[in-house]
Amino acid sequence: MSEFFGFLLSGVTVGFIYALVGIGFTVIYNSSGIINFSQGEFVMAGGMSTVFLLKAGLPLGVSFILAIMITSMIGIVLYKLISFSKESSQISLIILTLGFAIFLRGLAEVVFDKELHTIPSFVGDGSFDMFGTTLTYQSILIMIVSIVIVTLLYFFFKKTKTGQAMMAASINVDAARLMGINIKKILMINFALSATIAAIGGILLTPITSTNYEVGIMLGLKGFAAAIIGGLSNPFGAVVGGLVLGILESLIAGYVSSEYKDAVAFVVMLGILFFMPGGIFGNTKAQRV
Amino acid sequence: MLKIDNLSCNYKQIIALSDVSLHINRGEIVSLIGANGAGKTTLLRAISGLQKIRDGKIYFDENDITKLESHDVAKLGIAQIPEGRGLFSILSVEENLRLGAYVRDDGEVRSDIEKIYAQFPTLREKSQEYAGTLSGGQQQMVAVGRALMSRPKLLLLDEPSMGLAPIIVEEIFEVIKTLRDSGTTIFIVEQNAFLALSVTDRAYVLENGKIVMSGDSLELLKDERVKEAYLGA
User: Fold this and answer.
1) B49 touches chain A (CB under 8 A)
2) Pick from A202, A222, B55, B233: CA 20 to 30 A from residue A268's CA?
3) Which residues, 6 or more positions from A184, have their beta carbon under 8 angstroms from its beta carbon?
4) Which residues of B touch A161 (CB under 8 A)?
């Protein structure tokens, strides 16, 4: 039984990271109809920037803040590229995000390096013993920070004027415009917000799994799967999707073989797309993807 | 207050409006009648900055607003209730009303919401429900309330009667009359010519993207051509 809890808890830890990446997908998809395939590279940018800022001798807190700022700037650059693009069909814009992802990977390889990097846990290497298994402080930190982010996001969308404007724009763009909402500004905030959340995920994950320039490929796809499972248009669905995915992966890796771990995301995603194309919580824009 | 000079718009490849000129004076209630596809919605979208303009000018309070973006048009005090109401279906009634006041940053939003509830008591009961779950008539009330929350100088209504039961339509038009009496300038686009002509001061008739007639609403009601084409007489 203790083994089971061990797998479960590590699944939840990774699941929260997938959730953070997945939220990024939904936030951008909701406002623009675009699936941003640079989302994983935002995670990489957050982690890698932190590694190198720490190496440069900056204190932990400063490195975090700078890494988040760098990543959100990258998000804004992507938004600018999209808004300047003459091509307005969503397919070509999605391909643009894919190209941007490849560019970011190459840039990271040049600016940083190809090595695998890790950083020490932010809260020490200690751990708790729970249910006969151990839970590291870093895992607990990931869970707490993720829950805080999700809670803050909920209040942001529900209670703030900008958050409500973002909701309005995702439901009916023209009506939102008529309310006096500046759609371009809202879109830019969405890209910056997605990048920020992804960066935080990347920073939190680095002490556990380490990072390199291409870590974003798999994380991006896992986050995408989380978003699809939750129903692409619902950020809180992505949280559930991420957790389901993280737990399933961890259980499969533990009881079957870690070889199959990465296949889980895609099998589950395909299953969802075949049998409930709107996702588990996709009540708002249920449509064929 | 609003002046449109020789406006032309394309909708995809088709000419939707050609050489449309009209004006609306402060405090007036004016309607634009015409058949489905005549270009009525395109005209309202052009005023609000949602529709690209090929040629011509739009002035509001003497300012050229032809090239303004829609959110800036809204800030100037032009509110529109779009075709099909354009509610934020998965937000609550109250959230919809609050978004109507997006352009404002004074402290009276709450008391204005109360005023809307006083005018439409049903909306108070449904304030926490999703706007999309309400009946058609109630949704139209939310749409009217939401537009009023911006305290508009000019209110544009696109087919307020569409899809509603006659008794609800009557109720909505009662509200429109109250608004006019309180000094709001109103521009109504309607397919239901009889209804539009009986509540407005003046009217324009749009056919295939061109203004073909204009004048006093009551006179248009008696006009033989209008009767034949739009009043089914």
Assistant:
1) yes
2) A202
3) A83
4) 102
Q: Which residue of B has its CA nearest to A183?
A: B71
- Which residue does chain B place closest to A175, by CA atoms? B86
Q: Are A198 and A28 in contact (CB under 8 A)?
A: no
Contact B99 A178 (CB under 8 A): no
pLDDT tens-place string over residues A188-241: 999 999 999 999 999 999 998 889 999 999 999 999 999 999 988 888 999 999
Burial of A162 (0-12, 13-18, 19+ CB in 10 A): middle
Q: State pTM to two decimals.
A: 0.89
Choose the closest CB to A178 out of B80, B90, B98: B80
Chain A residues with CB under 8 Å of B95 CB are 164, 167
Give tens-digit pLDDT for B97-151: 999 999 998 889 999 999 999 989 999 999 999 999 999 889 999 999 999 999 9
Tell me if B106 is assigned to some domain.
Answer: yes
Which residues from A are below 8 Å from B100, CB to CB? Answer: 179
Buried b (16+ CB within 10 A) or exposed e, B93-114: bbbbbbbbbbbeeeeebeebbe
- Give yes or no for a contact between A151 and A244, defined as CB atoms under 8 angstroms apart: no
B90 inside domain = yes
- Give phi and psi for A41, each to the nearest 5: -70, -25
Contact B30, B204 (CB under 8 A): yes
B190 vs B29: CA distance, rounded Å: 13
Q: Residue B140: list chain A partners with CB under 8 A.
A: none
The C-alpha atoms of residue A238 and residue A227 are separated, in whole angstroms, by 4
> Quick check: B41 contacting A, CB < 8 Å?
no
Structural domain count of chain B: 1
Q: Which domain holds residue B128?
A: 85-150
- Whether the complex's predicted ipTM surpasses the cut of 0.90: yes
Q: Do A168 and B88 touch (CB under 8 A)?
A: yes
